[in-house]
Write a structure and sequence with these properties.
Serine Threonine Protein Phosphatase 5, Tetratricopeptide repeat, DNA-binding, mainly alpha, 3-stranded antiparallel sheet, 639 residues
DNA sequence: GTAGGGTTAG
């Protein structure tokens, strides 16, 4: 754990060393059984007990020696206890063990883990060059990486090679985790080549480390190449690849890999299952989700909080809010993520008021919100039309929690104001942002311009957004549609030309509905479904109902909504199929029914569907799943 | 001396 450190703290550490040197006397008796016990505790990760044992050793009059310190120091390091570490440093000096290479290394590592990197460097520099072994370099390199001083880590690595100290696999393991952003990819790749060219054994841990590096640096393909080339794969290998796909939104690949993992005989652990569940949530693949839950019930990690959170998210996003809530309620210890998951769950089901209540309840419980839960609640407010409530929450961030909103929060607020038709305010907010607006911020404004048919402002937003995200096809389509609706054919042509010049092609948008284990898939204007006649009749009826709903005043909406649900009185399968025809467009949940310009929040539909059919459905935009490109739906086995 | 984890909008 990183801890903030003040100069005062650092001075205090040095003073403490000094005091101890003067007052503490250590006898010279050594007892090897203490060392054996200490080593065992450190090995098992029982660091608190380790330090306790060390103190008992001192009290009993026995003295630590060069074999004691590495384990005791490791415990202080693991628990990030700088004062206990400094105390140990005193004892090291008292017993004259400081020149022992493994004690020295352990001291360096301890200071690094306690975020006292300057102390670590001082020790390193004070040691004669000839005594510095690979292990010392490794400890400091990984310390720099751990403390986010990647540049220093690289410099030390270069220095190490210059002076001819041999590099080993652990050096690579200390250095590579510093590559965390796409800019670091080149360096990471060169270390990979170096590792191979040096004939260093590319053992499992080094390969896993490199694999994670490729994922973090944004190259999932290179990660997969390495994965495919690995002669041996461990649990961590599978997990690194699964999590890599999951974090990049490649949900179908996650499920494919998970099945491959299970059939290869590797038993998934909570880390793997969390990745799988999050992908099920993204795909609406409730069947796989259920299988995973059964596996969890049979396993020994039944009470794992990470898994419970992932299950809440999965059920909520797959349409089963009741089950999500049940899991949430049953959790003895809910953390911030549990709350975030259930709040977002109510949000996607259109139950904004409940989500807000939960958020407020969470605050009362004494849980300090983070950036993610604010993103969640702000988006809930914007979808539920709770504009002022959302603005209150936004101002709460700085006022109550001293949090600086990031671009992701600004994009939510722009969306919030935009959906409420307060476009000028949204624009002013962007202009006054203390952080640089990203594509999402301008994209939110562009989306709002679509709803309110503001071509002029849309042009401004579009101009900015394509500078920031030139490859995001969604924004081009959005702008093109805005022009179409306004009857500006020249504008449409201009956007299409830019798209052609930039070689951007939009896959046909499609939606799917899962009903009784069967998936019904539709592309825009699709008439191939056997029940298409009934479906369109159903749509006509929906159209009228939705029109009424949109025409009603805001405070009437909830009531009208209930009427709409009870007024349906139709067979749920037909309804589901009707919903399949709703093309959710591009990256927005504003839907257009047939060619009518009725813009409705998709979440409202999810709410309707979940009420009518007892939470068995998922209605989702399926554009990003290439399995669906050919218009068939049976090709994907996960639904 | 050392590799893997959940939540978020457009």
């Amino acid at each position: 754990m990183n801890r903030p450190l003040t100069t005062l703290h650092r001075t205090y550490t040095y003073t403490l060393i000094h005091l101890h040197l003067q007052t503490h006397t250590i006898t010279t008796t050594t007892n090897t059984s203490w060392n054996t016990q200490l080593k065992e505790l450190a090995k098992q990760g029982l660091y608190q007990q380790g330090l306790h044992l060390y103190r008992r050793m001192l009290r009993s009059g026995d003295s630590p020696n060069a074999f004691t310190f590495p384990f005791a120091l490791k415990s202080s390091a693991a628990l990030s206890l700088p004062l206990s570490g400094a105390q140990l440093h005193c004892h090291v000096l008292k017993t004259g063990c400081e020149s022992e290479p493994f004690v020295q290394t352990a001291l360096i590592s301890m200071y690094c883990k306690c975020c006292l990197i300057d102390n670590a460097r001082k020790l390193f520099d004070e040691s004669p060059q000839s005594r510095l072994l690979t292990v010392c370099y490794n400890a400091l390199i990984s310390g720099y990486t751990f403390n986010s001083h990647f540049f220093n880590a690289i410099m030390l690595f270069c220095h190490m090679r210059e002076v001819g100290v041999s590099v080993n696999a652990v050096t690579v393991l200390g250095l590579i985790p510093g590559c965390t952003i796409p800019m670091h990819l080149g360096f990471g790749m060169s270390v990979h080549c170096f590792t191979v060219s040096c004939g260093l054994d590319l053992d499992l841990s080094v390969a896993n480390c490199l694999l994670t590096m490729y994922v973090r640096c944004g190259s999932i393909e290179l990660a997969r190449n390495l994965f495919d080339d690995m002669p041996e794969r461990g649990l961590i290998t599978w997990n690194a690849m699964i999590s890599g796909y999951a974090q990049n939104g490649l949900a179908t690949q996650v499920l494919d890999l998970y099945h491959e993992m299970v059939s290869s005989g590797t038993s998934p652990d909570p880390v793997s299952l969390v990745g799988v569940l999050s992908s099920c949530a993204n795909l609406g693949a409730q069947r796989v989700g259920l299988e995973v839950e059964r596996r969890i019930e049979r396993s020994k990690f039944e009470f794992n909080t990470f898994l419970k959170n992932a299950l809440i998210n999965m059920y909520a996003r797959c349409g089963n809010l009741v089950r999500a809530r049940a899991i949430f309620d049953e959790m003895p210890e809910k953390n911030l993520v549990s709350w975030t998951a259930i709040i977002g769950g109510y949000g996607v089901h259109g139950q904004g008021e409940t989500a807000v209540q939960l958020f407020e309840e969470m605050i009362k419980t004494g849980i300090r919100p983070d950036g993610a839960v604010f993103v969640s609640i702000l988006s809930v407010c914007s979808h539920a039309g709770l504009t002022d409530k959302g603005l209150d929450f936004f101002s709460l961030m700085d006022r109550n929690y001293g949090m600086r909103p990031g671009p992701e929060h600004y994009s939510c607020v722009v969306d919030l104001l935009g959906r409420a038709g307060r476009l000028a305010e949204a624009q002013r907010l962007i202009e006054s942002m203390p952080v640089e607006p990203d594509g999402a911020v301008w994209g939110a404004l562009l989306g709002a311009c679509k709803i309110y048919r503001n071509v002029k402002l849309a042009e401004l937003a579009f101009d900015r957004v394509i500078k920031l995200e030139p490859k995001n096809i969604g924004y081009y389509v959005l702008m093109s549609n805005i022009y179409t609706e306004a009857g500006i054919s020249q504008g449409v042509l201009r956007v299409r030309t830019i798209m052609r010049e930039r070689k951007l092609k939009k896959d046909p948008g499609c939606s799917y509905v899962e009903y009784k284990g069967k998936t019904h898939l539709f592309v825009a204007g699709d008439r191939r479904h056997p029940q298409i006649g009934e479906t369109y009749r159903m749509l006509d009826r929906l159209e009228v109902l939705v029109k009424e709903l949109c025409g009603s005043k805001k405070h009437d909406q909830e009531r009208r909504n209930e009427e709409l649900i009870s007024g349906m009185g139709v067979h749920s399968e037909k309804l589901a199929i009707a919903f399949g025809l709703l093309n959710t467009g591009v990256g927005t949940d504003i839907v257009v029914i047939k060619n009518l310009r009725i813009c409705v929040d998709c979440h409202l539909f999810i709410k309707l569907v979940s009420k009518v059919v007892d939470r068995q459905f998922v209605v989702r935009d399926a554009t990003r799943f290439h399995h669906f490109k050919d218009g068939t739906c049976s090709c994907n086995e996960y639904w």
